[in-house]
Design goal:
Blueprint lengths: L2 E6 L4 H12 L6 E8 L2 E8 L2 H10 L6 E7 L14 E2 L5 E6 L5 H10 L10 H15 L5 H14 L5 E7 L6 E6 L4 E4 L4 E4 L11 E4 L4 E5 L4 E5 L4 E2 L4 E2 L15 H7 L1 H9 L3 E2 L4 E2 L8 H6 L2 E6 L1 H18 L3 E5 H4 L10 E7 L5 H12 L3 E6 L5 H5 L3 E3 L12 H19 L5 H22 L2 H10 L5 E6 L4 H15 L2 E6 L17 E4 L6 H12 L5 E5 L3 H5 L5 E4 L8 H19 L18
Parallel strand pairs: 18-19, 18-20, 20-21, 21-22, 23-24, 23-25, 25-26, 26-27
Antiparallel strand pairs: 1-4, 1-10, 2-3, 2-4, 5-6, 6-7, 7-8, 8-12, 9-10, 9-11, 11-15, 12-13, 13-14, 16-17
Helix pairs in contact: 1-2, 3-4, 4-5, 7-13, 7-14, 9-13, 9-16, 13-14, 13-19, 14-19, 15-19, 16-19
Bound molecules: 5-amino-5-deoxy-1-O-phosphono-D-mannitol (M6R).
5-amino-5-deoxy-1-O-phosphono-D-mannitol binds next to helix 9 and helix 16.
């Protein structure tokens, strides 16, 4: 949430900051702003609304200068107004600050500042309090070296903060200099030639440099044009490795697609292939997952698995529970990361915990990972972002290799997570009772997926026509059984997120326990009913909806279409696959249905209302 970008160099800062903000806009888009220093004058432009509004403002009132900071906001404290947009300033008006995170004790800090007479605030934000605190301390510190003084003021202020932050700070009297710091919110330093950058996400700066230093919690970085110095909050100087960013600016372009979400849906044949690339052993009919950092003996000793995550990643975990229990017969539980981190779940020492997260930065998932490690459990990550905090702090894991996902609604990362969970089930299963025949059947099914996904994607126009037909409905219900129950939840989540329609997902059989009361002619039900072992049970539920005049969209395979003809209003036919890989196919028509309906309703698909891509606050 919130995007941060900072620049110190020889070029004009304004276009670089605006470009970075455009690339970060998916992280939050309530309001935006920049502060740029020209000589000893600090200029700021900020406004509620999208980056486009900020760009317009800056074209009307340009800012010049070769160092500055920019921010795109996802509101936590304070309404979406021009005043609450970042940057915020200290009482002197010389120190500008941008912030991603939440200062939990901002009221106590504000009260403390008031005692010093520092009580004039122009916004309702927690961030402005931090700017004032830094300024207040800066004024009290001695020393001729103003750079060291600013760094020390930042350190001293942050020592008083309870909460999370990724920040960038500059002072109009200290040329070509900025300070960054992080705790709980990501911050990366981009290392250029005679220019350096700060960003909350490397995507913001990858067009300028692919050399990056991923900062750790409690790091403070002093950034100049030609050098940088990283130290701890306590002031100890630290050494950090400069790494190469594994993607380029080209990879985060929309290409010919109207939306990132559609582009990412259509990337799935490739991303599913990449998730299993080099990880299948045909000889041993198993999976090879070296990144788990576990010996075969350790894997054999796993007595229980806990899968945790949020949102779409949680739905992947729910499919994972069916997979690992069916393939490996290892008891598996799914925990909402936000709940798991705060409760005392009884666990045995042989429990293996997986934190699943596309971004690898989700605050609750990271909190769950840390809590689990604190209690001594081996905790692994399933992440897309290889440089993320979850990837770095876990004991090992499996990368998705799905490439950057920009659309706020997760799509390709979900199917990659499902592939990886299938591989984990296969690996654990083959060390237990899963036969070679079963193992090779699963491998065959996995290898066939990219082509089958291509087939499903060809249904896009057909699904678009269905979406048009239902454009004036009041909501959508989703039903599925077994492996496809979590897909009903995921279908409903996609629908809610981008169409803003009321949508719910349920196990099909729950229908008669209450949900059936909702059924009516203007509320379609989507049934995920492939021709599998529970198909006939799904048909019973479909008939129950039909009898009450509820429109039915059925997603089926094999002989399912023949049987549902005359019962379902619309039928979407997908290839017939073994039940354990079925969710990787069934979710795709639901992604397309939500997408086309959202477009039909004129929604902002890639930046849906109130949401942000990476949820780094609790
Ligand atoms: O980056 P993560 O996978 O940890 O994100 C978790 C959720 O915030 C995310 O899946 C969210 O629910 C998406 N907007 C779903 O489309």
């Amino acid at each position: 949430m919130c995007g941060i970008v900072g620049y110190v160099g020889r070029s004009e800062a304004a276009p670089i900051l605006l470009d970075g903000l455009r690339r970060l806009e998916y992280r939050g888009y309530d309001s935006a702003g920049v502060a740029i220093v020209d000589g000893d004058h600090i200029g700021t432009r900020k406004c509620a609304g999208r980056i486009a509004s900020l760009a317009k403002l800056m074209s009307e009132k340009p800012l010049s200068g070769s160092y500055g900071i920019g921010h795109t906001r996802w509101a936590t404290h304070g309404k979406v107004t021009d005043e609450n947009a970042h940057p915020h300033f200290d009482a002197s008006g010389k120190i500008a600050l941008i912030h991603n995170g939440v200062i939990e004790n901002y009221q106590a800090l504000k009260d403390q500042l008031a005692v010093d007479g520092d009580d004039q605030f122009t916004s309702e934000t927690d961030t402005e309090v931090l700017a004032h605190l830094i300024g207040n301390i800066y004024r009290q510190l001695d020393g001729k070296d103003s750079k060291a003084r600013l760094v020390n003021a930042v350190r001293a202020a942050l020592k008083q903060v309870i909460g999370t932050y990724g920040i960038a700070v500059l002072h109009s009297d200290i040329p070509d200099f900025m300070v960054g710091a992080r705790r709980g919110s990501p911050l990366v330093l981009g290392v250029g030639k005679d220019e350096n950058f700060l960003a909350s996400d490397v995507g913001a700066i990858v067009a300028y440099t692919r050399d990056a230093v991923y900062l750790n919690d409690f790091d403070v970085v002093a950034v100049e044009r030609d050098k940088f110095e990283i130290s701890s909050l306590a002031g100890e100087i630290g050494d950090r490795q400069v790494s190469k960013v594994e993607f380029t600016a080209e990879d985060i372009k929309k290409g010919d697609y109207p939306h990132y979400m559609l582009k990412e849906i259509f990337e799935q044949p490739a991303t599913v292939r990449d998730a299993m690339r080099g990880r299948l052993s045909l000889e041993e009919c198993t999976a090879k997952l070296g990144g788990l950092n576990m010996t075969p003996a350790q894997l054999r000793e796993v007595g229980r698995v806990v899968l945790t995550g949020c949102g779409t990643a949680l739905h992947a975990a729910m499919v994972g529970e069916y997979l690992i229990e069916q393939l490996a017969n290892v008891p598996t539980e799914v925990e909402y990361a936000s709940e798991f981190r705060h409760r005392n779940t009884p666990m045995t020492p042989d429990t293996l915990v997986f934190a699943i997260s596309q971004s690898g930065e989700t605050a609750d998932t990271l909190g769950a990972l840390r809590e689990s490690r604190r209690k001594g459990y081996r905790t692994l990550g399933i992440c897309n972002n290889v440089a993320s905090t979850i990837a770095r702090e876990s004991d090992g894991g499996v990368y998705m290799h799905a490439g950057p996902e920009i659309g706020v609604a997760a799509t390709k990362s979900f199917t990659s997570q499902l592939v990886i969970l299938t591989l984990i089930g296969l690996l654990l299963g083959r060390m237990r009772s899963l036969s070679t025949a079963e193992g090779s059947r699963i491998i065959e099914a996995l290898e066939a997926l990219p082509k089958q996904i291509e087939e499903v994607l060809k249904l896009s126009d057909e699904i678009k026509a269905i979406a048009k037909k239902y454009a004036d409905v009041n909501g959508v219900l989703f039903f599925g059984r077994q492996f496809n129950f979590p897909i009903a939840l995921e279908g409903a989540l996609k629908m809610k997120e981008i169409t803003y329609l009321f949508a719910e997902g349920h196990p099909s059989a729950e229908l008669k326990h209450g949900i059936i009361a909702l059924v009516r002619p203007d509320l379609p039900s989507v049934f995920i009913a492939p021709d599998d072992g529970v198909f006939s049970k799904n048909v019973n539920n479909i008939e129950q909806v039909k009898a009450r005049k509820g429109p039915i969209i059925a997603l089926t395979s094999g002989n399912g279409a023949k049987k549902l003809k005359g019962i379902a209003n619309d039928i979407i036919e997908i290839p017939d696959v073994p039940d354990c890989v079925s969710p990787i196919l069934t979710v795709i028509p639901l992604q397309l249905l939500a997408y086309h309906l959202a477009v039909e309703l004129g929604r902002d698909v890639d930046k849906p209302r109130n949401l942000a891509k990476s949820v780094t606050v609790e």
